[in-house]
Amino acid sequence: MTTETTVISPLPSNLAIRNLLEDLLGRDVEVTPGKPCSVGGAPGAAVALYVDDHLRSAAVVVFDFALAAHAGAAIGLLPPGASEAALEDGELPTNLHENAAEVLNILASLFNVPGAPHLKLHAAYAPGEVLRSDVTEMATRTGSRLDLSVKIARYGSGALSIVTF
Q1: Exposed, middle or buried by CB within 10 Å (0-12, 13-18, 19+), for 130?
Q2: DSSP characters for 65-87?
Q3: For the chain, which terminal residue's Cβ has fewer other Cβ atoms within 10 angstroms, N or C?
Q4: Are 57 and 134 in contact (CB under 8 A)?
Q5: pLDDT tens digits, one per residue of 64-98
Q6: Looking at the domain assignment, is residue 104 inside a domain?
Q7: Which pTM was predicted?
């Protein structure tokens, strides 16, 4: 008789997050302790669901609206005015959402460390998009989570939450 044990994916370190974002965005990035990101309300948040090789949910990453806009503009090499306009309008244009989703996809690499399950991006929800109820529950869990404030040089600040299970 074999029993299957579930291994929780470890939370990445602040340094690993900062280094990955700096390398990816080509900008200085500051990462400091922050508050949990809200996944409801307007204008909403960008939410990523990561699954293991058996398609079991294993992690959720949340970018508040501001971080989704700033990261989306920075990776797309758009001027800071692009994210500022999105913040003023309270709506994330398609190109910024797609760019932010690419950042969320690359963040999967933070979970793929020796001894942990291999994770990949399963779904990336745009700010304001209705989340599955289980994704909302996962994003608001306490326990194995990391809540950060992220500042991208020349673009601005936002919040990032990571929850593993």
Answers
A1: exposed
A2: HHHHHHHHHHHTT--HHHHHHHH
A3: N
A4: yes
A5: 999 999 999 999 999 999 999 999 999 999 999 99
A6: yes
A7: 0.94
Domain membership flag for residue 7: no
Cα distance between residue 152 and residue 139, in whole Å:
23
Any idea which residue has 């990561």 for tokens?
50
Does any domain span residue 86? yes
95 in any annotated domain: yes
The helix/strand/coil state of 163 is strand
44: amino acid identity, one letter: G
Closest of 157, 137, 139 to residue 148, by C-alpha: 157
Q: Is 110 helix (H, G, I), strand (E, B) or coil?
A: helix
Residue 48, classed as helix, strand or coil, is strand
CB 47 within 8 Å of CB 125: yes
* Tens digit of each residue's pLDDT (9 = 90 or more) over 122-142: 999 999 999 999 999 999 998
- Using the structure block, give the residue that is written with the tokens 């948040």: 45
The phi and psi torsions of 147 (rounded to 5 degrees) equal: -120, 125
CATH number (domain holding residue 93): 3.40.1550
Q: Are strands 57-64 and 120-125 parallel, antiparallel or unpaired?
A: unpaired
Strands (E), the chain: 29-33, 45-51, 57-64, 120-125, 145-152, 156-164
